[in-house]
Design goal:
Layout: H1 4-9, E1 19-22, E2 27-31, E3 37-45, E4 48-57, H2 62-77, H3 82-95, H4 101-112, H5 118-136, H6 146-158, H7 162-181
Helix pairs in contact: 4-5, 4-7, 5-6, 5-7, 6-7
Length: about 200
């Protein structure tokens, strides 16, 4: 198992394209003739050798590199390609500011606003700020159950605003579709709720 001192003093002979120092469990430090040092974890994928970059030394020390390797191993043991899992996480972090309902709804509103009329934007924003966020805004949208959203919509029904309850559901549908598309949720829970609401006559 490599120590930080060994990593610091490691060099690559000038006649080689690169040198590798094995650590443990498939983890190794790759050194270039120019002196750059990068961590890699070697594993098997579909019967072939693959590797995953874990950062550069000294930004990532030996201890942190082993922790990153262990996390990647855990993903692989669960049947998840660790490289793909990291790419998904990067994509998630690039699409919005968080995974709560409030953050997802805010992202959805911001993306939709340029294509909506002012009246439509105001209506959608009001449905979110008045009827969704006060009860579910701080929850991770992927963890919210249909019965929880239904309970929120039933509060609108209790005000006697049956048509508004259906409009809030339509707003929630847009937010959940955005959540699925951006990796914040796995399914849109809103279709299963529509028939549980009281019907309204236009």
């Amino acid at each position: 198992m490599l120590t930080d001192a060994e990593c610091k003093n490691a060099t690559c002979p000038p006649e080689k394209k690169r040198a590798r120092l094995a650590c443990s469990g498939g983890l190794y430090l790759e050194i270039s003739p120019a002196g750059s040092k990068r961590w890699f974890w070697k594993y098997r994928k579909d019967g072939k050798e693959a590797r995953m970059a874990l950062g550069s030394y000294p930004d990532v020390g030996a201890k942190d590199a082993r922790k990153a390797r262990d996390a990647a191993k855990l993903n692989k043991s669960d049947g998840i390609d660790p490289v793909q899992a990291r790419q998904v996480e990067k994509l998630k972090s690039s699409v919005g500011s968080g995974d709560t309902l409030a953050a997802t709804a805010g992202d959805w509103l911001a993306r939709g606003k340029p294509n909506w009329s002012d009246a439509h934007y105001v209506r959608e924003s009001r449905n979110i700020t008045k009827d969704l966020n006060p009860y579910l805004g701080k929850r991770a949208i992927g963890d919210i159950l249909p019965i929880e959203l239904l309970a929120v919509l039933q509060k609108v029904e209790e005000r006697g605003e049956l048509d508004v309850a259906h409009r809030v559901l339509m707003t929630a549908h847009g937010v959940w579709c955005h959540a699925v598309a951006t990796g914040r949720a796995t399914i849109d829970i809103t279709p299963s709720i529509k028939k549980a609401l009281k019907p309204h006559i236009r």
